[in-house]
Input
Amino acid sequence: MKKQNSKTNLLNHSEAKVELLSKYIGRFLNILCSENYTKRIRIYDLFCGQGLYENGGEGSPIVIMRSVKEVFYRIVNNREVKTQLDCYFNDIKSEKVEKAERSIIEKKLWYPSFGTLKFSSIDYKDYLQNLTVELNELDDEKAFVFIDPYEYKHIKMQHIHALMKNRKTEVLLWLPTQFMYRFEKNSTPKALKDFIEELVPYEKWNESRNSREFVEELRDGFQNAIGDSFFVDNFIIQKDPGTTFALFFFTPHIKGFEKMLESKWEVDNEHGTGWSYNSNQLSLFTENKVNPLAEKLREFLSAKERTNGELYFFTIKQGFLPKHINEILRDWQNTSKIDVKNVDGSRVRRSAFYINYQNYRKNHSRITIQYL
Output
């Protein structure tokens, strides 16, 4: 079978990347367009590529515009005060931008009533310089930035931090982590050393045993560099046993983080950690596999009583969803392993744990739970 050219065809691992982008953009727009105070949403694709590929694969510009069109007609168009949906597609290769624009127009994925649609062919650094200024002036607006660079040397941690400084922007970053890992300790190029140095001093960087560990090291480094007031997570995409790439998500909001986790678990409903071409994964709750959340949760609840709000934050930070922790807690409650009570000491109705975003915000200490 003839090998497809990755420059003109959307391959399986890239399709998984775009699928996660599509699922999250849908959730992102759905939430913000249902609110009353976000008047404008800006979506930026800084290395947009050609959009439509020879094998029929749809790249980021197409899936973004499909989500915009869907949410506009389902939500925005039915409201008196309409949220403006602005999309900006940029790529230094002008021929790719022209193809993306042509595909969007031919597929009727944009109408002027949606908002602004702009295409440009500007060097990433120049575009970023103007964009960070624009984003820091946002008021009743929100932004999402997708960065899928041709080379990781273009990317700096300071760029991510500058984009998110206003706390109104979320960033999804794609990195060729397999190639970065390959040179982690052997003949490390200056570009990689500089990249790591932005996260931690290079001499303190832990040598990874495999590419997945390298991804985890990067995630922890990103989290350390950007600070505890932001949330960082990764999604691994394995092209084949020896080739691993990763998406990294940055957000200042725990709700946005939960929505990305929902997207991850929808793509990978066994582990919520990644995608592989030949997936043969065990279920999260298989008897032969120790549930990682259960082990960490047991330690967390054994130390002292925890409120429902603390448990929500703990669960999200671990990369899991409320439904996962509720399943564990129900099992433990049925086997009398936990004590669940209201803050006044009274009993709580069975299986009522109140671990969700709404209670996290408005009723953080509704109940307490402790492992016995």
